[in-house]
# Entry
Amino acid sequence: MTSSRHIALITGASSGFGRATAALLAQHGYALILIARREERLHALQRELMVPVYAKSLDIRNRKEVEVFFHTLPDAFSPIDVLVNNAGLALGLAPAQDAQLDDWEVMVDTNIKGLLYVTRCVLEIMKRQNRGIIINIGSVAGEASYKGGNVYSATKAFVSQFSRNLRADLFGTNIKVTNLEPGAAETEFSLVRFKGDAARAKSVYERSTPLTAQDIAETILWIVQRPGHVNIDSIRIMPLDQTWNGLVMNKK
Ligand code: NDP
Ligand code: 8X3
# Structure
């Protein structure tokens, strides 16, 4: 039964932040809609959770599939209270002049266009019920510039600005919007960025203490627990062991 429960839709629930958020929201009684491409992982997670779960393999880059997903959403799961727009990725860390255009396209298609497809469909639901919380997972990279961040960072800058503009459009409704900007967290993020090179991924975090997926899940729980009149517009969380490193001068 979902009728007495809040319902959260989490994209990218097969790993990292999304998976940890699903587990934590389930502990707090949420019914869950879980999306990712790796269906087996979603079903394994579903079996662990003691709440109603609708888990579906979906590639958010496919606009048609996203629309069909929402048209065929079971009625019991359709009054979505919380959307966590989490699915996303970085591919590569090469400087722009050496980067792969294919990688850039995948990041734009996922982090920007996929997020838009899901958001637009959920807005239809939230508009009807005049209620809801949208939490977009941006990144500190949306503001900071670093070598090799190029298109990944730019997609997260998009998420930041889109979140602010959503707030402007939704002004006067009971629909909240947050841009949550984590810094470095040890998930599968670097493994994906470095295309399965586990040693290189591990080296990003060694001799540092990165954020954990649980840190982000707990922040998401805190955001959704704020009273009705409070909107958390943006929140940035970095590990103590990470910061900006200033401007550089080329020494010839
Ligand atoms: P993970 O790689 O562990 O998780 C990413 C999730 O996104 C997976 O569940 C993956 O599922 C899903 N995903 C990727 N592409 C698609 C797609 N086309 N359709 C559906 N789902 C997709 O990384 P994180 O948990 O770290 O990343 C989550 C979000 O947090 C991302 O948006 C990332 O940019 C952001 N972020 C991460 C930081 C970090 O340091 N870890 C810091 C700041 C922001 P599947 O492969 O099964 O489809
Ligand atoms: C990723 C955060 O700091 O690894 O979004 O670039 S960082």
Observations:
- Strands lie at 7-11, 31-36, 53-57, 82-85, 132-137, 175-182, 234-237.
- Residues 7-237 form a domain with the Rossmann fold fold (CATH 3.40.50.720).
- The mean pLDDT is 97.
- The radius of gyration is 18 Å.
